[in-house]
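Example record used in the benchmark description.
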Amino acid sequence: MSTTPDTQAILRHWREAVPDDRLAHLVKDSTRALVRALQMRLAEHAVSFGHWTFLRILWEGDGLTQRELSARAGVMEPTTFSALKAMERLGYIRRRKFAGDRKKVYVLLTAKGRALRDVLVPLAEDVNRIAVRGVKPAAIATTRAVLLSIIENMARDESAAEMRMPSTRALAQRMKTVAPRRTRKRLASRS
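Model output (structure tokens):
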């Protein structure tokens, strides 16, 4: 098996330098390798990884608003706007407002954008096959279950953290009772 110097360094790091390092680092390096492999394949078809992300979402649910698309992709709306402008220029999508609601911009796949699915999805499937080559089906099932549990646990933790965060009003009230007067004045002058 031939590996690049980058890959060899990463493998040496994980096997020798920090064999018991945090799971988050392993997941990050695995993700980086998977993304890089897919990017190389997408580039052969002149499709960027960012466009792939939006296309994949639209193939599952065409006609989303820009805001919904942004939320599902997990990116900020300005990033989505820029990507969609480029995708529209390439002929993958069109953006449209409907008569009933002139504020929302809907994103619709063109025939060209829909046709990319048959070309690009097999590339992603190929990357996945390569990634698990030589891994027993039971280990793959366990890995999937563990990763889904991690996602669920982290989502619960995020929700709990949001609930623990005091409101702006509560912070202002606490500041009045805790912060010395000159600190409150200094902080107030900054806003």
